[in-house]
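Researcher: I'm preparing a figure for a lab meeting and need a structural model of a single chain. I don't have an experimental structure, so a prediction will have to do for now. The sequence is pasted below. Please return the structure as tokens so I can convert it later.
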Amino acid sequence: MAINLDAALGVHGQTLDFRVERAKVLSGNLANAETPGYLARDLDFSRLMTQLERGQATDRNYDHAYRVPYQTSADGNTVELGQEQARFSQNAMDFQTSLTFLNMKIQGLQKAIEGR
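Model: Understood. Here is the structure written out token by token.
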């Protein structure tokens, strides 16, 4: 009998993909903090999870929303360094949490396969 890994692992695998994509977007914001006219972007993680829960398709071309800054800058750059750093750190912690859940699922499957 074959095991459907997508069903066995639940949403945890896709959650990691979302977190990786968000880390890329946030690191791009951080790298462009001094670029005139750069518009900060983000990944709407809750919207992606809602789509996933509803069974809707989420392709690899994620929509990136532009962020409205708390304070405007003279050069039109919307990256707020402190805010981006905090979001990046929070995303890293959330990634680690998702990875822990995924590891627990895999360990559970391994025990089931071994008959323990």
